[in-house]
Amino acid sequence: MTSTTPSVQLVSDLVTRIPEFRGVYETHVFTQGDVLPHVFFWDVVQGTVRSFLGEDPAAADWRRTLDFLEEQCCRGVLGIDEVIVTSFLGDLPSPQEPGHAIVHQLGPALSAKFVRIRPLG
Questions:
Q1: Which residues of 8-32 are buried (b: 16+ CB within 10 A; e: fewer)?
Q2: Terminal CA-to-CA distance of the chain, rounded, Å?
Q3: 88 close to 45: Cβ distance less than 8 angstroms
Q4: How does the average pLDDT of the chain come out, rounded?
Q5: What confidence tens digit (pLDDT) does each residue in 87-117 have?
Q6: Model's pTM, two decimal places?
Q7: How many other CB atoms are found less than 10 A from the CB of residue 67?
Q8: Which residues, 6+ apart, have CB-to-CB distance to 48 below 8 Å?
Q9: Which 3-state string (H, E, C) describes the chain?
């Protein structure tokens, strides 16, 4: 039996806590043949930004996603932080892109990590 990595557990916990991501998750696993957290989180970023912009009423509420990621970020687990920083915070819209204002809604832990990796926003 293989143990679940923290990053794969992060994806599982996200889908459990925010079931609106289940369809994206199932498509991801079907397409990829496995859970690839960094790849999956591209879809999480897109859905979260669409929700923030009000473009997708069926999307998971962006506040719930940010709250979940803030909680996970506070745990200090390397594999979790790596996915959140690299594949969520790093992929948020740039200052000239629609939805960039979501960065002003990040909780304290997420915000601190965001400023470290993207000091210019």
A1: bbbbeebbeebebbeebbeebeeee
A2: 42
A3: yes
A4: 95
A5: 999 999 999 999 999 999 999 999 999 999 9
A6: 0.94
A7: 15
A8: 59, 60, 62, 65, 66, 102
A9: CCCCCHHHHHHHHHHHHCHHHHHHHHHHHHHHCCCCHHHHHHHHHHHHHHHHHCCCCCCCCHHHHHHHHHHHHCCCCHHHHHHHHHHCHHHCCCCCCCCHHHHHHCCHHHHHHHHHHCCCC
Residues in the chain, overall count: 121
Show the tokens assigned to 119.
Answer: 């000091």
Q: Is the dihedral of CA 14, 68, 74, 32 positive or negative?
A: positive
Q: How confident is the model at residue 48 (pLDDT cuts 50, 70, 90)?
A: very high
Tell me what percent of the residues of the chain surpass a pLDDT of 70.
98
